[in-house]
Amino acid sequence: MPLFHFTFHAYRSWNADHPRGYVHRGEKGILPPDQILARARDHLANFPAVRFDDQDVQFFVTESHDVVQRRGWTLYAVTAVDTHLHLVVGWREQINEQDVQTKLKQGFGFVLAKRHGTKGRPYFSRGGVPERVKDMKHLRYLLDEYFPQHHSAIWRRELK
Fold first, then answer.
1. Dist. CA 86–CA 159, nearest whole Å
2. Per-residue b/e over 129-147, b at no fewer than 16 CB within 10 Å?
3. pTM for this structure?
């Protein structure tokens, strides 16, 4: 069963002027902050930046089960903060991780739009690179160390 760690960033939550740098599609690594590009992106944006409130964060944790199980997949863990959420998901069908990522974002976007009464508004940034969970040690690290570092709502499956 493929097992992947997904990170979904809120729409416009990490602009090019971020102090830690930014990522640009098609380029490798983190690039240094760029004030000019950030202003240009702000000018071109069709919607304001998204920040998830406390109810959204809790909503992700409780609704992740439904979004994932509706597809017949398995949720191993979820955590969320005001700018992003992390999930570890596994599946048995023949589908690649990019398609799983797209379907998860669409599912979360649909339930958020319904919850907030919006239509056509993006809640997540485009793209993303799913990270394959290599082995049980990697999974335990994500569930026992990395996710809890977010100091937020968290749910995790108990491992044997």
1. 18
2. ebeebeeeebbeebbeebb
3. 0.88
Contact 8, 112 (CB under 8 A): no
d(CA 45, CA 56): 22
| Residue 17: how many other CB atoms lie within 10 Å | 16
Structural domains in the chain (count): 1
Q: What is the DSSP letter of 143?
A: I
Report the 10 Å Cβ neighbour count for 60: 26
68 in Cβ contact with 104 (< 8 Å): yes
Phi/psi zone of residue 100: left (φ > 0), alpha (ψ -120 to 50 degrees), beta?
alpha
At 47 the pLDDT is 92
Write the pLDDT tens digit of every residue in 66-112: 889 889 999 999 999 999 999 999 999 999 999 999 999 998 999 89
Where do the H-state alpha helices sit in 70-129? 97-116
Decide: helix, strand or coil at residue 51. coil
Strands 84-90 and 74-80 turn out to be antiparallel
CATH, residue 140: 3.30.70
Please give the residue range of the domain that contains residue 34.
3-156
